[in-house]
Amino acid sequence: MSREFLQTKICILGYGFTSLIAYKKLLEKYNHNDILMLKNASAKDILTLEIDSLIFSPLPIFPVLESDLYKSDMFNSEEYKESIKVSYTEVKNFNLTKGEIKNGSLASFMLSNNSINKWLCIGLKQWGENFLNKPFNQIQAKIKNHYLSKNGNTRIGYKNSLSPYYDTVKDLTPSIVKYKEISSIDYKNSLVTTDSKKIRYKKLISTIPVDKLLSFCKFNFVPNLEYYGSYFLYFQYSEGFSRNNLIYDCDFDSNILRIFSINDNFMMVQLKSYKSIKIDSSIIENQILKLVPSIKNLKLRGKLILPMSYPVENISDKKTLNAIKIITKQNIIPFGRFGEWKYVDLHELNWRKIQ
Ligand SMILES: Cc1cc2nc3c(=O)[nH]c(=O)nc-3n(C[C@H](O)[C@H](O)[C@H](O)COP(=O)(O)OP(=O)(O)OC[C@H]3O[C@@H](n4cnc5c(N)ncnc54)[C@H](O)[C@@H]3O)c2cc1C
User: Fold this and answer.
1) How much distance in Å is there from the Cα of 47 to the middle of ligand 1?
2) What range does the domain containing 276 cover?
3) CA–centroid distance, residue 309 to ligand 1 (Å)
4) From ligand 1's centre to the CA of 16, what distance in Å?
């Protein structure tokens, strides 16, 4: 089969916030024509969703005021100033005894901090029983780097129902090559072959899950990646919960992990774990009204399931680490939460790595 041949200085594989911000940052040094973005034609991107003609960011992706990324000229920081307001309900129906917590687990790590009951309750709701037994190294690293750091963690909320990150990328016009499938990445010869193209690159930045990247590079094993998903319901209401409020539900018996108001009439509910998928939405509605009794005319408007949201353990098997080392030496840069397999936010990435 004959395929069109293309050449590029930089090829970005993946089409999410990491790829788009990378593109924007690369424009500081390269021309638009030097960069090609490879996008899976059938993958649904979730930069925004549309429900009943409301276009909104479905995930609460917040820039951090004190971060270098926010302070860089990516943002017009005069424009985005409203920080989110976070609150926690009282801990209820939670009776964990310290004896149930295994040494070295994420739960035992959390015991060394304040507000123990609150964090243990939320942790167990989000991560399930494994939270008591497994180290969840990626989550520990996130807590250390982020929440316990002295750098500040002021999260800037949505404007017009959209994450400020969306505003920074929405007008970008990268050259996009869509693919149905990637047949191979020949990293020794810097060549990506898709169903319709052959693309020679000088540098390949990949934000797709690292196991997929390695399989495209024809490494013949399946990396053992541990991750968790997330499950969201979206509700509309007429009044009672103004925008950019985030409430953690610390009732252990409730199926809600947290709720977030995207605007003054629309909210996101993150359920407590993947297991909650079959829950009747009227149970969730009743619980929302317990959290915010002032809400009026609440109606379910949509759902979203993301099977892979949080990397939870470090990659430790030697084969995978070695394969990553090999491709990195050959001008491939695995980048971002899924590319590097790190539970990090956008402002925590080392953006110098790609420039
Ligand atoms: C509830 C929640 C809250 C969050 N809050 C924040 C926050 O406040 N701040 C923050 O910075 N981040 C937050 N995040 C993380 C956020 O999702 C990421 O920072 C951001 O979306 C990462 O963008 P990305 O481009 O790396 O990943 P993605 O947008 O997931 O893009 C990955 C790319 O890989 C491709 N891909 C996926 N699977 C495959 C496959 N099997 N084969 C080929 N390609 C594939 C996708 O099509 C996509 O192009 C949050 C996440 C969740 C779930």
Assistant:
1) 9
2) 85-154+227-311
3) 7
4) 6
Residues 126 and 233 in one domain: yes
Pocket test for ligand 1, best of 11, 12, 13, 18 (most atoms within 8 A of CB): 18
Whether residue 32 lies inside any domain: the answer is: yes
Q: What is the pTM (predicted TM-score) of this model?
A: 0.95
The predicted pLDDT at position 148 comes to: 59
| pLDDT tens digits along 24-44 | 999 999 999 999 999 999 998
Residues 303 and 325 in one domain: no
Q: The domain that contains 320 carries what CATH number?
A: 3.50.50.60
How many structural domains compose the chain?
2
Please tell me the predicted confidence (pLDDT) of residue 100.
Answer: 79
Same domain as 306, residue 231: yes
At CB < 8 A and 24+ separation, what contacts does 54-57 make? Answer: 54/161, 54/263, 54/266, 55/161, 55/162, 56/158, 56/161, 56/162, 56/262, 56/263, 56/266, 57/158, 57/161, 57/162, 57/163, 57/165, 57/166, 57/262
Q: Which atom of ligand 1 is nearest to the CA of 230?
A: 53
